[in-house]
Amino acid sequence: MIKLSVITPTLNSAKTIIDCVKSVESQSYKNIEHIIFDGGSSDGTIEKLQKFSSNKVRLIRGRDFGLYNAINQASKKAKGSWLTILNGDDYLTNIYVCELVVETIKSFPDISLLYGDLCCINPISNRVNRYWKSSSYSMGAFQKGWSPPHPGFFYKKKILNNISGYSEKMKIAADIEFMYRLLEINRCKSHYIPTPLVQMRSGGLSGHFSSKILLNLEIIRFLKLSAPGFNLFKFILNKLYFKSMQYFKSGI
After folding, report:
1. Of 3, 222, 227, 247, which alpha carbon lies 20 to 30 A from 27's?
2. CB-side exposure of 123: number of CA atoms within 13 Å?
3. CA 101 to the chain's CA centroid
4. What confidence score (pLDDT) does residue 252 get?
5. For residue 43, what are the domain limits?
6. What is the pTM of this model?
7. What is the tally of structural domains in the chain?
């Protein structure tokens, strides 16, 4: 029976962490562990988690050197054969997400990773303000401004035996670079599920304008180093198109 490990790095996530935990706890598929790696919360996150009784949750309190270091540490402790990262202010879309993921893995036994769509939710109105409609991967897609959403990105743990985990040198784009290495460099077989797997509250690490600038600068930097024939103009043009379509599909 396939075991899934959901990894949630936290730091002062008291306002949202229980929604995140409940979305995993309520899954119809039961062979799941939920690893919460807390880097030193002081806002009541730990107390809320300790009051939440669940045999799925493994709370790990430790020192980390940033978000991606926390994810790498937690990944090494995961017992599941498949992993995914669910941030503390995100939650699984419905109770059948993990069941759908496992059925997909069984239906396509040669894949090493899978992903779906993403809904970005206004934290005040709870309305969808951005719908990230993804697509099946094709070679060279990252250079054209495409990437799958990282929330809802599932991958085999054994992949980590052959590559390093998330780059701890990056401040904000290590998730994109990680998926790029798996899909573009290592040619891992993937499958796209055309439905939202995760709902993400707007804001967060990459929500501010300055953060978006830094995110894209980091992406451009690693693409220039590793993607032959990278065209900056085409990348920016396509990136703007993909992003505008996400807001258009949300109905805004």
Report:
1. 247
2. 12
3. 14
4. 45
5. 4-249
6. 0.94
7. 1
